[in-house]
């Protein structure tokens, strides 16, 4: 999904939620005051805080959807993560405030009891918040947005807290003292817990916690489905704004050409992003050897420049070496395999001795294991 479409959906869903929260908060606060219900008033303040967080979501969505630039080569997805952390902090503070007020009401009870009409608006809040949850979570799953998912569960927690409010008001109307204020304290605890949960999830993203292990294993198996892949290792993932970023090393046949290996990597990248829409960035590193072997190989085998110089010295008295058109190096196990390409005109008895000297001169190098000679027509395309 394109960033513009993701931003458009987020805006639509959040503005809808803001409109509902605006109306609902007004009704809850007004009738909480008129109906003398601490719990409904607390729930109304909670809904009002939802209105403020809706605007945070709108701002963060607008900024995080901006394209990558010179200063932010990985994009602006962390803004969404920071917004989620801010939402959690706001919820936590709101919850503490409501809890303190509820405790004060228990310690210094009022003679007034809530009116029956307050139950109607508490039930209205349950219906409205559950509807917003279902609407928002559907959009969150479509866009793979952790921020929208957090907002959706925020709506669900509101619905649950409103259920507690209904229970509290009903109990107090039946003559059970302190239940309305106690319900307000319970609501406050639920709000604070949700704030802690959102902040913890955002912090997890900020410190680059990997994606779910189950998802990572599914990705690993999907990569192995490619017939050219021998193994997968160093598979690392992280999340940014709810979207996944992945890099991995795949092992392939050491005889593959660079172009074929690049094609395999590109094909795997495409397939992973298509099969797992949440993952939007895939980086594949091609390994002809396993990790344990590669470290020892790199420690003792020389680079091409050194090898070409050694071969030039070994062939300085071999005139046939001037006809070599291409030299291919294969870093295999602990030795190098060399492919030499010569014109087909060199494939004759008169050049046999010179060809043998070329081969032997290369094999005499202590880091060379095998030398293969290929003859091609000059007019033919070089094969890889």
Main attributes?
single chain, 384 residues, alpha/beta, Alpha-lytic protease prodomain-like, Alpha-Beta Plaits, 3 domains, three-stranded mixed beta sheet, 6 strands, 14% strand, disordered C terminus
- What's the Cα radius of gyration? 34 Å
Text of the CATH class of the largest domain: Mainly Alpha
Number of strands: 6
Mean pLDDT: 83
CATH topology of the largest domain: Alpha-lytic protease prodomain-like
Task: State the fourth-level CATH superfamily of the largest domain.
Answer: Cation efflux protein transmembrane domain
Helix/strand structural class: alpha/beta
Quickly give the CATH architecture of the largest domain.
Up-down Bundle
Low-confidence parts, pLDDT < 50 over ≥5 residues? 379-384
Number of structurally distinct domains:
3
Query: How many strands, which pairing sense, and closed or not: the largest β-sheet?
Result: 3 strands, mixed
Which percent band covers the strand fraction? 5-15%
Residues in helix, %:
55-70%
Spatial order of strands in the largest sheet? 1-2-3
SSE arrangement, N to C? HHHHHHHEEHEHHEEHE
The end-to-end span amounts to 37 Å
Count of helical regions: 11
| Coarse morphology | rod-shaped
Provide structural commentary.
By secondary structure, this protein is an alpha/beta fold. The model is unreliable at 379-384 (pLDDT under 50). It contains 11 helices and 6 strands. The strands form 2 sheets. It has a 3-stranded mixed beta sheet. A 3-stranded mixed beta sheet has the order 4-5-6, with helices on one face. It folds into 3 domains: 3-206, Up-down Bundle (Alpha-lytic protease prodomain-like), CATH 1.20.1510; 213-288, Alpha-Beta Plaits (2-Layer Sandwich), CATH 3.30.70.1350; 297-376, 2-Layer Sandwich (Alpha-Beta Plaits), CATH 3.30.70. It has helices at 3-34, 38-64, 77-107, 117-143, 146-173, 179-206, 213-224, 258-275, 291-300, 304-314, 352-363; strands at 231-240, 243-251, 279-287, 326-332, 335-343, 368-376. 61% of the residues lie in helices and 14% in strands. The chain is rod-shaped, with a radius of gyration of 34 Å.
């Amino acid at each position: 999904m394109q960033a513009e479409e993701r931003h458009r959906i987020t805006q639509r869903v959040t503005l809808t939620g803001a409109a509902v929260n605006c109306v609902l908060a007004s009704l809850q606060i007004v009738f909480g005051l008129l109906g003398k219900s601490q719990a409904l008033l607390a729930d109304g303040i909670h809904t009002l805080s939802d209105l403020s967080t809706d605007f945070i979501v709108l701002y963060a969505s607008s900024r995080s959807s901006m394209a990558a630039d010179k200063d932010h080569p990985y994009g602006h997805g962390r803004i969404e993560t920071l917004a989620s952390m801010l939402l959690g902090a706001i919820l936590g503070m709101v919850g503490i405030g409501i809890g303190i007020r509820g405790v004060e009401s228990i310690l210094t009870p009022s003679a007034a009891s809530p009116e029956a009409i307050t139950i109607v608006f508490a039930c209205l809040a349950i219906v409205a918040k559950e509807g917003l949850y279902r609407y928002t979570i559907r959009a969150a799953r479509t866009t793979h947005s952790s921020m929208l998912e957090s907002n959706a569960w925020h709506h669900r927690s509101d619905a649950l807290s409103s259920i507690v409010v209904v229970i509290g008001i009903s109990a107090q109307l039946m003559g059970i003292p302190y239940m309305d204020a106690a319900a307000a304290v319970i609501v406050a605890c639920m709000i604070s817990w949700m704030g802690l949960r959102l902040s913890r999830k955002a912090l997890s993203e900020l410190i680059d916690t990997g994606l779910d292990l189950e998802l990572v294993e599914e990705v690993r198996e999907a990569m192995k489905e490619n017939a050219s892949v021998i193994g997968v290792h160093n598979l690392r993932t992280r999340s940014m704004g709810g979207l996944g970023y992945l890099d991995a090393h795949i092992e392939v046949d050491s005889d593959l050409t660079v172009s074929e290996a690049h094609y395999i990597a590109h094909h795997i990248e495409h397939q992973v992003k298509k099969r797992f829409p949440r993952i939007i960035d895939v980086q594949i590193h091609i390994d002809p050897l396993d990790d344990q072997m590669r470290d020892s190989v790199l420690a003792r085998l020389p680079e091409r420049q050194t090898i070409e110089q050694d071969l030039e010295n070994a062939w300085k008295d071999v005139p046939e070496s001037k006809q070599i058109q291409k030299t291919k190096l294969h870093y295999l196990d602990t030795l190098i395999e060399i492919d030499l390409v010569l014109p087909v005109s060199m494939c004759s008895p008169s050049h046999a001795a010179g060809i043998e000297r070329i081969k032997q001169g290369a094999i005499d190098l202590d880091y060379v294991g095998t030398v293969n000679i290929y003859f091609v027509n000059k007019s033919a395309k070089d094969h890889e």
